[in-house]
Design brief:
The protein folds into three domains: 56 residues, no CATH class; 31 residues; 49 residues, no CATH class. The chain contains seven helices and no strands. The protein is extended. The N and C termini lie far apart (55 Å). The relative contact order is 0.04.
């Protein structure tokens, strides 16, 4: 792999891919906004949409290549890695759907507290306490949270 990344053909392919992504991003911006200047929120939204689009497109193309007749022509490391990543992704999806309400509220409260989004963190603390009002540990965490932010 290291040898491949140093070849001139790799550099040419990488540059062509960068140009294609840039053109794709430019077209997305033109479709959404025309030629008007973008605010920072619009820029962030378009970057996120472009990122999601590219991720899904790459996943689709890779699945088609691996699941089609081209599978035999691909290196076994690529196929094995794809299969392990796909399996891990499916496991994460199953785990995320098997999360209880209390665990979800607890996770969201911690995540929002980490990024200092006090309003959403407080909402998830309260939701957890409404679901399970006798959870003494959660009441203690909520009290510490309130003291930390002066609520």
């Amino acid at each position: 792999m290291t040898e491949f990344t140093q070849l001139p053909k790799y550099l040419e392919l990488r540059d062509r891919l960068k140009q294609a992504i840039f053109r794709l991003g430019s077209e997305m911006i033109k479709k959404k906004t025309g030629y008007q200047p973008l605010s920072s929120a619009q820029k962030s939204q378009i970057k996120a949409e472009l990122y999601i689009f590219l991720q899904t497109k790459m996943k689709t193309c890779l699945q088609e290549a691996i699941l089609s007749s081209q599978r035999n022509s691909l290196h076994s490391d690529i196929v094995n890695q794809f299969e392990s990543i796909s399996g891990a992704r499916e496991d994460r999806q199953f785990e995320s759907y098997s999360e209880t309400k209390e665990k979800k509220f607890d996770r969201l409260a911690r995540e929002f507290d980490t990024v200092r989004d006090v309003e959403n963190a407080e909402r998830n603390f309260v939701n957890h306490l409404v679901e399970n009002p006798h959870d003494e540990k959660k009441w203690e965490e909520f009290a510490q949270f309130c003291l930390r932010y002066g609520l």
